[in-house]
User: Fold this.
Amino acid sequence: MRASSSLVQVTGNNLNIVYIILAISLGALAVAWALRAQVLAADEGTEKMREIAGAVQEGAAAYLARQFRTLSYFVAIVFVLLFALPGDADIRIGRSVFFLVGAGFSALVGYNGMWLAVRANVRVAEAARQNSAERAVQIAFRTGGVVGMTTVGLGLIGASLVVIIYRENAPSVLEGFGFGAAMLAMFMRVGGGIFTKAADVGADLVGKVEKGIPEDDPRNAATIADNVGDNVGDCAGMAADLFESYAV
Assistant:
């Protein structure tokens, strides 16, 4: 795409606006960090609560580590294919590099959402156990706020950097950024959903049907897998999907 024929003009005041947006994105990440610190400062509850929460955290981390390892192969293949597309060398390099950036940001938002969610769960439960409904809702909303602010911050950072670096050619490079975010989000959302439902059905069959144990009873080991599934599907997958929707 030639600058002379481009409909996108990034000069003067337009460029200043992009820098302002970049500053706003950094502010959003700062707010996310502050909210995260407030959530983690809350009480984790009894030793038994911390033990169960630790098992869920370990399972969720193991699932995402395995998922990201598998997805890295697909990301590498698509990176090479994007670079092989016809066009100017600078555009092909930028599109491929920002494909990796978009995929990385999507994975980061998903992982961050899951990481904080599995730690906020027990804190919300402890606040509710102390008959503090207001505190419980506050912790839950701040946890969601971290994901929201991280999504906005990283999305604007990626788009701003593309515009600042590539100016009139930014639309072509943004294709790679959006594609990377969308691809990771799709795999995380679908994969997490499959794991969630498989763990849910398995826990119900073993607990309620075969052993007569109530749902979500910690005596049922499959309950841990069920809760892991809820977090990797409804937290990590949803957060990555949210970033993809925002970035694209």
Remarks:
- Confidence is low (pLDDT under 50) at residues 1-5.
